[in-house]
């Protein structure tokens, strides 16, 4: 843990989510960003940012392979809050080359192919979205996967050279659902159909009773590989 991570950890420790976000906005003036994929957790953070007019730039990664339901909740969010959500698309040439050489479903063939697709559609656009930022807000929660239980609420992202803050890190799924209901926050209807985690349509399925939270993501792969690289440090 470096000096700035310790500083920010101390700054937000014990603070309510909104208060923590306000402190970070003041600490990283004009350089705080939030990435949303329109999941339940992200919708809560979007609500906090937009309802309180926090000067945090909100963006999403438009991979080109999203569910229709994701576009629905995206549009509802714009209608309700009247705030801008920046969209970052993958490089057109890189997508064209990938599809031309390997076809539209190469990600099913190997972990390497899947990670190549994730890199083109998510990782590279993310790097562009984070340019100039010093603090990145995410909707990560500890109980979402074994990998995420090893994270901390405040982290140093060595890849992108910035602070990451997960305001809902210690929340349970019940906490999330109750907050969304209490504040009438728009959410993806796929959550009501067994989709706890929603990514690209070809790579996401509903989970079965008793399955892990992330079981519906890249379900054809070994469990230990269930991250796309967005939150690699």
Describe the structure in brief.
By secondary structure, the protein is of the alpha/beta class.
Question: How would you portray this structure in words?
Answer:
There is one protein chain. This protein is of the alpha/beta class and 233 residues long. It has a single domain, classed as Rossmann fold (3-Layer(aba) Sandwich). Helix content is 39%, strand content 10%. The protein is built from 8 helices and 6 strands; from the N terminus they run H-H-E-H-E-H-E-H-H-E-H-E-E-H. Helix 3 (40-51) packs across helix 8 (173-182). 35% of the residues are buried.
Question: Could you outline the blueprint of secondary structure elements for this entry?
Answer:
Elements lengths: L2 H10 L4 H11 L4 E4 L4 H12 L5 E5 L6 H14 L4 E3 L3 H11 L8 H19 L5 E3 L8 H4 L4 E4 L4 E4 L7 H10 L51
Parallel strand pairs: 1-2, 1-4, 2-3, 4-6
Antiparallel strand pairs: 5-6
Helix pairs in contact: 3-8
For the structure shown, list the relevant keywords.
six-stranded mixed β-sheet, 8 helices, Rossmann fold, alpha/beta, 233 residues, globular
